[in-house]
Structures are given as C-alpha cells and as structure tokens.
Amino acid sequence: MSISIGDVVTDSISGLTGTTTARVEYITKCVQYLVTPKWKQGETFSEGHWIDEIRLKTVPKKKIAVKRKRLRHTPGHRGAGPHAPKRAGGRVGTSE
Predict the structure, then answer these.
(1) Terminal CA-to-CA distance of the chain, rounded, Å?
(2) Among 24, 40, 76, 78, which residue is least crowded by beta carbons within 10 Å?
C-alpha cells in the first residue's frame, strides 16, 4: 500500500476521513498512521486517531482544470512589451 504523510485517507471501518500526519512501524511490522480529521470552524478541535494501514484507503486527489490563454504573435515584437524600460540613446557598450 502506498500511503504518504499528507495524503487524505478514509478508514474503511469507521468512515473517518482525514489527513495522515504521522506514521509508526512497530517491531512486529504493524504499520499505523495518525489520521487527523479536517477542522471546521465552530467545532471543537478533534484529535487524530491511530489507524492500521490495512484499514486505510487513499482519497483520490481532485484534478484542477487550468484554462490557458493563448497569446497572439505581433510582427516585429521582441518580447519587450509596453512596460519594458526604455534604453537611453546610444549603443550598448559605447560611451555615446
């Protein structure tokens, strides 16, 4: 099972959903994660619960759609843009 600290998981038995905030592995090879539920304003602070790894299922991450704006190519444009600093007269590297 591939669970990492920071993953959102759900306990298959109790239904508790939260973020894994710690991991412990005992000498008996038992692996547990500390699952901390999301705090909601107005509620009292709820503590995390240690849950066996085998009971946890990761919640799929939501995909975020990013709309990209396509820029138009302007002939003769060299990337300076209207806000680029203007060069003082003369050539670069000369004392004109």
Answers:
(1) 70
(2) 76
Closest CA to 37 of 51, 55, 26: 51
39 vs 43: CA distance, rounded Å? 7
Look at residue 54 and give its three-state secondary structure. Answer: helix
Query: Of the candidates 55, 54, 73, which has an alpha carbon nearest to the alpha carbon of residue 13?
Result: 55
Q: Is the pTM of this model over 0.90?
A: no
Query: What does the CA dihedral 71, 73, 77, 81 come to, rounded to 10 degrees?
Result: -10
Distance, CA of 45 to CA of 77 (rounded, Å): 57
At 4-15, the pLDDT tens digits run 999 999 999 999
* All structural domains of the chain with their residue ranges: 8-58
Locus of tokens 């975020």 = 64
